[in-house]
# Entry
Amino acid sequence: MSKEKPPRVAMVVGATGATGQVLMQYLLERSHYSEVVVLHYRTTQWAGHAKVREVVLSLDQLQDLDLTVDVLFCCLGTTIKKAGSRSAFAKVDRDYVLALGQWAVDHGQPSFHLISAYGADKGALAFYMKVKGEAESGLKALGLRSLAIYQPSLLHGRRDEFRLMESVGFYLLSLLGSLPVSGLKVLRPTRITALATLMYQQSLLDVSGLQVFRPSDIAVCE
# Structure
C-alpha cells in the first residue's frame, strides 16, 4: 500500500525541457520537497533559487556526481534533427537514461521516474520507438527499487521552440482521437501539464516495483 512521505530531496535531469519546466514549477512552489537538485550541462534559470542546488555537469561525467536524493526525475528527450544524428539521439534518449539508472542503483536507490513514449518497444521497426524501448528494457533489468515509466502520446503544450511536424501531428491525432472508435482514443495528444502533474503526484507516494502509465492514465490529470 502506498503512503505519502515527508519533505525530501528531488533531482531533475532535463529540467529545461517542456515537461521539466512545468515539473520544476510544482517542485519549487509546493512544500513536499525541501531541496531540488538540477543536474544540467550548463547553468539554468533556477540558479540561485533558495530551494535549488544546481549541479553543472555533463552526463558523460556522471561518475563524478556523489550525492543522495530521494526521487530522480528523468525528463531527457531530444529529436534526431536536434541531436544531429541517430547515434547522438540514442546517446541522449537511451545511453544517458541507462547511465542515470545505474547511478540511482549505486547511490541509495531513489525512486526513478522516466518520461518515455507510448509505443516504446525494443523490437520496433521505427528507430525512435526502438530506442525508447531499449531504454525502458535496460532500466527494468537494473533492478531499481522503484521505477515509474510514463508513456505519453504526442506531447502538447507550451514549448520554447516551434516544431512544425509536432504541430501537424497534434491536429491529426486530435482528429483521430475524437472519432467514436475506442482503439483510437489512445492517440489523443497528451498535455504536458497533465504529465507533469501525474509525475509529481506519483513521486509523493512510497511505491516499490514497476509502474507503467499510459496515455489514458495521464489524461485523468488534465
Remarks:
- Residues 159-182 have pLDDT under 50 and may be disordered.
